[in-house]
Amino acid sequence: MITHYPAGTGRMPGGSPCLPGGGCCAFARWARAGLAVSLTSMSTTDLTAPLARPRIPALDIARTIALVAMAVFHFNFDLELFGYVAPGTSFTGFWRALAVVTASSFLFLAGVGLWLSHAEGIRWAAFGRRFAIIAGAAALVSVGTYMAFPEAFVFFGILHSIALCSLLGLAALRLPVVLIVALAIAVFYVPEFVRSPSYNGPSFDAPWLWWTGLQTMSLSTVDYEPIFPWFAAFLAGMAASKLATRTGVWARLETLTPSRAA
User: Fold this and answer.
1) Where does residue 42 rank: exposed (0-12), middle (13-18), buried (19+ CB within 10 A)?
2) Residues 147-179: pLDDT tens digits?
3) How confident is the model at residue 130 (pLDDT cuts 50, 70, 90)?
4) What's the rounded Cα separation, in Å, for the pair 180 and 183?
5) Confidence of residue 204 (pLDDT cuts 50, 70, 90)
6) DSSP secondary structure of the chain
7) Residues 6+ apart with CB under 8 A from 89
8) How many other CB atoms are there within 10 angstroms of residue 90's CB atom?
9) List of residues 6+ apart from 36 with CB closer than 8 A
10) Which are the contacts of 122, defined by CB distance < 8 A and separation ≥ 6?
11) Is residue 235 predicted with pLDDT exceeding 60?
12) How far apart are CA 141 and CA 197, in angstroms?
């Protein structure tokens, strides 16, 4: 019998569920470092316009909170890994919720950053630099985890998801806010529809389609944020950022700090 785990949840070696933003041993720290680089690039390179542009402290604070939350979750995860807390602690209750919220916040903030960076037109050079950094870090995580435990390596974790969501997000830059929100809702609910008894469309169980998150079997991986439903968080960030621009929220926040040189 096929067991359906919540979208974005894989399995670790030994059968323990693996949560969004999870990881094991030293390679979890590679993912954390890559996320830190990703968020840093959103607040510097990607948000640097050709002209001087002030920083937005609220975004820097949000990114810092996300990184701290990730560190807190992984500290507890490491305690469990080494037997200092009860087995399964990281996968239930508060800790599971923290993992999901933290992973969602990374993708949400990445969506915010994409809109702020390219609202006036796609700046391909800046986008390419940031994409290369994130994709490169994702590749290192995949290689490292494959060397450590090939039966559950990271083939589509948080960094892979941010990279692909950034590419897909370019196509949504010019959509109205209401359509971006509608698309986010659709992306979120697609897995439920595909796994429902009424669905009789094509199967997504082939390994080369696992990045979609629409397969019907459980997977062994230590970090897993597939496009469905996680692209919804990225789109939500884009919609919120676009709405904040149109309502003057970003303009008001920018006045709180002096301009910085490009």
Assistant:
1) buried
2) 988 888 999 999 999 999 999 999 999 999 999
3) very high
4) 5
5) very high
6) -PPPPPTT-EE-TTS-EE-TT---HHHHHHHHHHHHHHHHHHHTTTT--SS-----HHHHHHHHHHHHHHHHHHHHHHHHHTTSS-TTGGGSHHHHHHHHHHHHHHHHHHHHHHHHHHTTS--HHHHHHHHHHHHHHHHHHHHHHHHH-GGG--SB-HHHHHHHHHHHHHTTTTS-HHHHHHHHHHHHHHHHHHTSTT--S----SGGGGGGT--SS--B-S-B--HHHHHHHHHHHHHHHHHHHHTTHHHHHHTTS-----
7) 76, 80, 95
8) 26
9) 67
10) 170, 173
11) yes
12) 36
Taking Cα atoms as reference points, which of 11, 9, 13 lies closest to residue 21?
Answer: 9
Q: What is the largest CA-CA distance in the chain?
A: 60
Length of the chain: 262
Place of tokens 């968080």: 233
Residues 6+ apart with CB under 8 A from 260: 52, 53, 54, 55
pLDDT at 48 over 90: no
| Range among 86-90, 109-113, 222-226, 246-250 with highest mean pLDDT value | 109-113
- Cβ-based neighbours of 107, under 8 Å, separated by 6 or more: 158, 161, 162, 165, 225, 230, 231, 233, 234, 237
Residue 17, φ and ψ in degrees, nearest 5:
-65, 145
Distances (CA, A) of 169 to 126, 246, 248: 15, 19, 22
Q: Specify whether the CB–CB gap between 241 and 226 falls below 8 A.
A: no
Which residues have a Cβ under 8 Å from the Cβ of 6 and sit 6 or more positions away? Answer: none
